[in-house]
Each structure stands twice: as C-alpha cells, then as structure tokens.
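Single Protein Entry

Contents — chain, fold
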Amino acid sequence: MSTGSLTYRPTIGLTTQTLHSIDGIPPALPSSWVMNQRYFHAATEAGAVPWMIPLFDQDMATLRAIYERLDGLLIPGGVDINPGEYGESVRPECGNLDPARDIVELQLVRWAIADGKPVLGLCRGLQIINVSQGGTMWQDLASQNPAFHKHDYFPTAGFERDHIAHEVNVVPGTHLSQILECTRCPVNSMHHQGIKTMGANLQASATADDGLIEAIETTQEGFCVGVQWHPEVFEMTDPYTSHLFGAFIDAAIRWSTAQAATATA
C-alpha cells in the first residue's frame, strides 16, 4: 500500500502509564500519562507512525474511537498487573499497580484479538495478552517458585537495560521461530513476574532454560505475539529486534490494506 511515492506507514498505538504508578514519583505532582520514548523511537525506526494512547478507562466510547483509527497495537513494559484481574489477591512482593492502565490495555487487546488486528506485547505487554485471554501470572518468581533462575536484572540494581541475561529456546514451527529464524536467542531480562497458566487460544513460542514462558502467540489467525524481554532497547541492526518489529509492522500494513480493500469493495 502506498500514498503517492511514499510507502504506507501504519499507525501503531502505544499505551501509556500513570505517572504516579512509577517508583519515587511524589503523589503531590499533577496526574500525567507517560511512556518511555524508546518504544516510540523503535516503532518509528521500524516504519510506523506511533500514536500515544491516553488511559481513558472511564470513557470506552472514546477509547474505541481511538482503537478504530489504529493499524496495530504495541503494549509496552511497565508496572505489575493488578492480580485481581486474574482472580488473585495482591501478594506483598507485588510492585506498584496502575488500575487505569490495566483496564485500557486489557480492553484494547481483547478488541484487537477479536478483530485480528496486529498486537505486539513487550514484557508487561506479553503478560497483558495472557491475562486478557484468561491466563494467570506468577506475582513474584523468586518467592513463589525457587526453581526459577534470576530474571530481574533491573537498572535499579545496576544492570544496563541492554544487559544480555540469558538465552531463550524458540519453539520450532511457531510464528516466532519463522520471524527470528533461530532456535536459541539471547535476551535481556527485566521482570519479576511471569506466566503461570496460559490464556485461551495462546501457545508458548519461547521458553527460558528454567521452563519459564518467554514468548507467546495466538493460535488463531492474525499477528499477536508477546515477548518477555525488551527488544526496543536494541538498535535495529540487531537481527532479533529488526525481525520482530519488522514482522509486526508488515502485519499492520497488511491489516490496513485488507481493511481498505473491504471498504471499497
């Protein structure tokens, strides 16, 4: 699809986070919606037009109108999902919560999966995809299951965001294996939660050596992929980053083309 001499750039919605949900932000500051710039730069470098989505958790009509103008959704990393969203009480190890973000992201992903609109989830984004389809989470890997290796290589503990923490085993025959073209992939790791039970119509597409699910994808038609790592911090010269973002943007272009063809048929 093209506009004149320019290749079509799909509009990709990126969700935001409530400022006060971030550690160290004084509650007296005015309420704001924020998000790490790196997600927007990565989407732009991959060929998208990024669009910041406000947390209209009390205005579903406006949220739906925003959603309908998008060619795809990118759900970034962030704070922990409220365990109440998957039927559990909050454990003491659970970090900060952002209920408005939970409501907005879960609704957007459910709409997108139902419509076959492309979704890419990064870290928390993988978890949102899983919970949106009825899955559950380990609220804290270290305290709930000592068999898990270390996964919380946080910058607050002195690790760089691009620190390679371990490798993941990519499941042969999955969509992710076709995208990454590898069986073992080095990744960074900045999370203390992980998938406990898988949501409906999802499958694991990569695991860590300790068995923790590191990537998921839909078993239905359409592009819906979530990875537990943070590819957005790497340059597009990194093959695993460029292949993943490239496949997502290509899927969004196909989605837009198909919608345009349907509208003019």
